[in-house]
Amino acid sequence: MNLRFTDSPNARSKSITTADGIDTFGILNQHSTGNGAYKVGVSEDVGTRRYMEDAHSFVVDYAGVRGQGFFAIFDGHAGKHAAEWCGAHFHEYLLDGLRTSSSATIPDVLNETFHNVDKRISRLSEESDGKIHSGCTVVTAFLRIEDADGRQSFLPAPPLSPPSPTDSGSRSGSESPTEPTDESKETGKKAKSKSPASASRFARALKSLGGSSPTSPSLPSAFSATRGQTSPPSVQTYTVPIDAPPNSRRVLYTANAGDARGVLCRAGRAVRLTYDHKGSDKQEAKRITDAGGFVMSGRVNGVLAVTRSLGDSSMKEYVVGSPYTTETELGSDDEFVILACDGLWDITGDQGAIDLRRS
Q: How many CB atoms lie under 10 A from the CB of residue 322?
């Protein structure tokens, strides 16, 4: 596996391109002009930080089914490496999980993927002799086309997928976080200072994504707000996507660790799909103290403001990679999804972001 990183402190996401025809053949961060199921927009801003440590990724017609999609945001801290690596490889690990655990539920596959990626980043840190010690919060969304019973009987066997990523690791158990309380659904305390100029930049970014809106309200768009740049392409092998039967349903599976958030616009109203894992959260603070750690000023062991992430190997005893997952069947009232790091949510709430996008 290619683990080369540049000397630049800025994280790079693979350059966004547009396919010549209708098919992207699974190429990372490539639009399809013939994709009628959804459209994708990306906006990024380094804000007040010195360096860009975030990455993004999306795959059109994901896992060999036309109309499926993978979308993710990786919000890095303590360096770029975890976020940049996830931006280039997380989708490969999820594909491998879908192929090797075909009888498992999608939330279980997502949980397995988070744990495998978390272990891989920890090994990357160990192999770097202490030079790499970063982590990243993450929010992912997998738009899946499936039968009424949640299966994909229209797929041939074996299901379409690229070669397995190396060192994928073994399946791990998960911690299932408690459902969000009304209090936890409110915007958390600001971990980073934001100026009015930052707020206006994010507002302009959300509005600029208006071109991502679909021509029909029954075809939701997915778009992401990050603060990242570009990386070398990964080589994968795909066949032409399979068309699902017209009566198939569309289900959005989301998973997050940390305070990167996903919000669905349903009939103009914000529906949060994720859970903010922060030191200020009472349930997360109890989990950490039960494990022998402590929370000071809303930070794990006085250091990290988030309680779940990928990477952060030096704090892995307390800062776990177990995701919060949701499953949402999409209908005609669902307009779009926003995936964004805390840089957006520190300056606006869920409904505020939805209203900006719709205005």
A: 20
